Amino acid sequence: MDWGCRSLTNIKNIASYNLTSGAWVSLPNQGLSSDLVVLAPKGTELYVGGDFGGTGDGNQYTGQIVRLGTYNLYIPLVAH
Fold it and tell me: What are phi and psi of 23, to 5 degrees?
């Protein structure tokens, strides 16, 4: 199935869709390093769980659960 994102670069496993422009948008740090298993929206945030351990470009360790906030920042959720 063509979701209209074949020509996009720097997207790894996750992207956002802009309803106003009708365009797919890559997320910071080239997305996430591996498969996503669950997405859970809550207000303006998105909780993401999966087999990833960091960002797609390898610059940020995230663990396997992150919160994607308003400013498209990956916030790792870790046990305390």
Answer: -120, 145
Residues 6+ apart with CB under 8 A from 56: 10, 12, 13, 29, 30, 31, 32, 33
Paired with 40 in beta bridges are 47
Which amino acid type is present at position 80?
Answer: H
CA atoms within 13 A on the CB side of 1: 1
**Per-residue pLDDT reduced to its tens digit, 14-29:** 888 888 988 888 888 8
Give the C-alpha separation, 36 to 51, whole Å: 6
How many C-beta neighbours within 10 Å does residue 50 have? Answer: 19
